[in-house]
Design goal:
The complex is a heterodimer.
Chain A (H helix, E strand, L loop, with lengths): L1 H14 L18 E2 L4 E2 L3 H6 E3 L5 E4 L12 H6 L3 E3 L2 H10 L2 H4 L40 H7 L4
Antiparallel strand pairs in A: 1-2, 3-4, 4-5
Chain B lengths: L2 H7 L66 H6 L6 E2 L15 H12 L15 H6 L2 H6 L3 E2 L6 E5 L2 E2 L2 E4 L10 E4 L6 E8 L10 E11 L8 E4 L13 E10 L18 E2 L1 H7 L5 E10 L3 H9 L29 H7 L3 H15 L15 H7 L2 H8 L16
Parallel strand pairs in B: 1-2, 5-12
Antiparallel strand pairs in B: 3-4, 3-6, 7-8, 7-10, 8-9, 8-11, 10-12
The chains are: A alpha+beta, B alpha+beta.
Organism (chain A): Caenorhabditis auriculariae
Pfam families (chain A): Ribosomal_L35p
InterPro entries (chain A): Ribosomal_bL35-like, Ribosomal_bL35m
Chain lengths: 155, 412
């Protein structure tokens, strides 16, 4: 009796795939959800689980499929598959939309291993968005570029 | 073909009511079994393009292997005969000491046999005159007296710093050379000797020349060195940090009359010691004749720093300036996925990255005498499971920029 139940359980697990792949996204997660109670959109928990947002607006993710059939892949792949990778601008924009403003705010934690990567260096693209807000940096008192570059490392 | 082209080419009378589709592609874009690559120009074989009216197919010969005989017309005899510039002996002739007894045939055979069996031992200490080949290899003569010059050691010169005897190019620690060496000069009759100690590689100044570390003139023959006039006081050789081994030569000159060297030599400042030996020699050529030479090598040591500090100078640190690594222009959002930590580190200030490593080092150990643990990461299994790979690499990797964790220039 007990054996039978175990067998049936195994069978059912084989038929219903528990892995959520690109082909197997449940309908209720296929769009931005709206929370009736709060009265605004709900952050996509999948995006928050799988991606990390750095304070400078860059989203990073693990290499997809890094655990699949590792034994049959070459040495370089074994190494590079462990990297955390950057997302493209398009992906970053989508992910920003999937989350709420709370997750877009810069976060500061003690002993943050990502501390060094929250600011970008050596970039010449505009630092300020259309609303005149600093995009990649924290807000500063000193606003003119030459002074802030002299006194602050991040830019 | 567009409608306008059709209208231009075909009179109205003959035009069809609808635009005929004559612009259809002339070949299928893909073949099911071969894919689109079947129609690409062949990249894998060299395309055979040559003017087909020619009778012979042009043959391609790789240029690399062509040896043009016109450039190698000289025979081996001619090559061997031409020895380039003739070298000039600026010293004395070697006195020919006739061998006491001609070796017999048996003795010669025996010698040959021993040497063939690699059993012929030559006591280096007993060989009197140094091998000129070593001096030529180290370019001692060339850098002291100019190109294509040499001289034989005809006067025995024994120099030793305590237990460290100076031979031909042996390495002596800088700390052992802090005191002037004991010098024994062979006596060869009525004349005067002048001893000069020169560091060939130790000139840090813009001025050309070598550093004279000791200069004693007019040493009467057969007398100790202190009987001479010390023109430049002894200063230990100063091989600066990062400059590798320095050649320090001790040169013995012989002259009949007491002399005073023509350019005014003084040793007030370190810079005053830099002189071109070739120039000094050229000016006093008529009086001076080099008769003996020895040289040794030294490298940086703590004593060099101490000596420089005692002179009121700072110890300079030399290091090789590498070219900066090439890197692509940074994109705010790279098109292809990049390892985020490596990509962002590439554009960070390298000093800041180094600081990070030193900070990590200071957490576990003191700046000096870092105790390198036997295991790179004692908690490897646990960390491997829990930490992301780029964080774990920071812990256990000791290569690249993580090298500074165990190996830091502050150590030495």
């Amino acid at each position: 009796m007990l054996k039978n139940s175990v067998l049936t359980a195994l069978k059912s697990s084989q038929t219903v795939s528990t892995f959520r792949t690109i082909a197997n996204i449940p309908a209720h997660e296929h769009h931005i959800r709206f929370d009736m109670k709060v009265g605004r959109k709900r952050p996509c928990s999948d995006a928050l689980d799988r991606f990390k947002r750095l304070n400078n607006g860059m989203w990073i993710r693990a290499h997809p499929g890094r655990n699949k059939l590792r034994y049959m892949k070459d040495d370089v792949w074994q190494r590079t598959s462990t990297y955390f990778e950057t997302c493209t601008q398009e992906e970053c924009r989508i992910l920003d939309k999937l989350t709420t403003p709370y997750w877009l705010r810069p976060k500061h934690y003690p002993n943050d291993p990502y501390q060094a990567y929250h600011v970008r260096h050596d970039l010449s693209s505009p630092r300020v968005d259309d609303r005149n807000q600093l995009v990649r940096e924290r807000k500063k008192v000193l606003l003119d570029d030459t002074t802030s570059q002299r006194h602050f490392r991040d830019c | 073909m567009s409608a306008a082209q059709y209208a231009r080419l075909v009179p109205k009378k003959y035009r069809s009511r609808t635009l005929p589709k004559i612009d259809r592609p002339w070949r299928p874009r893909i073949v099911a079994w071969a894919g689109p690559a079947a129609f690409y120009p062949n990249r894998f074989y060299e395309i055979d393009k040559w003017y087909k009216a020619r009778i012979d197919k042009p043959q391609k010969v790789q240029k690399m292997h062509i040896i043009d005989p016109a450039e190698h017309s000289r025979s081996l005899d001619e090559l061997l005969a031409n020895k380039g510039v003739e070298e000039i002996n600026i010293g004395f002739k070697v006195m020919k000491v006739s061998e006491a007894r001609e070796k017999s045939v048996d003795e010669k055979k025996n010698l040959e046999r021993i040497s063939r069996h690699m059993e012929l031992l030559i006591n280096v200490d007993e060989t009197k005159n140094p091998n000129l080949g070593v001096y030529k290899h180290f370019k001692i003569f060339e850098h002291l007296f100019g190109e294509a010059t040499f001289f034989h050691t005809v006067q025995q010169l024994d120099v030793s710093f305590g237990e460290d005897v100076v031979f031909s190019g042996n390495v002596i620690e800088a700390a052992n050379t802090s005191a002037p060496p004991s010098v024994v000069i062979e006596s060869l009759g009525n004349a005067f000797n002048t001893l000069m100690m020169v560091n060939l590689d130790g000139n840090p100044y813009e001025k050309k020349g070598e550093m004279i570390h000791w200069l004693v003139t007019n040493i009467p023959d057969g007398q100790p060195v202190h009987k001479g006039a010390e023109v430049m006081k002894y200063l230990q050789p100063l091989p600066f940090y990062g400059t590798g081994y320095h050649r320090v030569a001790l040169i013995l000159f012989r002259h009949d009359e007491p002399i005073s060297l023509t350019p005014n030599l003084n040793d007030e400042k370190l810079e005053d010691r830099a002189h071109e030996i070739a120039k000094i020699y050229k000016e006093n050529e008529k009086v001076l004749t080099p008769s003996g030479i020895k040289f040794f090598q030294t490298s940086y040591d703590d004593s060099v720093k101490q000596t420089l500090h005692s002179l009121g100078l700072k110890s300079p640190l030399y290091s090789y300036e590498y070219n900066e690594a090439l890197k692509p222009d940074q994109r705010e959002f790279p098109e292809r996925p990049q390892p985020f930590n490596l990509y962002l580190d590439m554009y960070r200030d390298p000093k800041e990255i180094e600081e990070e490593v030193v900070e990590k080092r200071l957490e576990t150990a003191q700046l000096e005498q870092v105790q390198v643990s036997k295991w790179r990461d004692p908690n490897y299994v646990e960390n491997k499971k829990t930490l992301p790979a780029w964080q774990h690499e920071k812990i256990y990797s000791r290569e690249g920029r993580h090298k500074a964790y165990i190996r830091n220039p502050i150590d030495s």
